[in-house]
Amino acid sequence: MRRAQMLRWQLNAEQMFLSRHSCYSPALDEMKIEYHPVQFNGSLDFASSYRGPPSPEVDAAWDELAGLGLMSVTRDQDFLHVGTILHEWVEHSPRPYPNFNTWHQCRNFEDIKGWIKGNTFAQKLPDADEWLIVPG
Hints:
Blueprint: H1 2-17, H2 26-30, E1 35-39, H3 56-66, H4 75-81, E2 103-107, H5 109-118, H6 128-131
């Protein structure tokens, strides 16, 4: 029960502070950003669509993440979201080692991507032959 209460409090706190720690976006006004708990598997040999030898499939997985445009993280944003204090360690390890198999509260990016797809319009770019024609 205590874990459920903590998750509920964390979800409310995340929703409350979302507007303070996010750049303005119409999506913030028009949709409720949902959060859900995700347990990360931090083991080095965990299979993922983002890992593996170079291949079109791995490239496509990374391109899907970065396909929304350029991404930039300022030093201030980094300091706001990244800490140096580790709260969970691998038990019975001979040396201190962080446990990456932890629970995180993650924004539901599938909903956000769905909102973006539903609120954008296709822009037809001219073919190279059209815009390379010299007037006159």
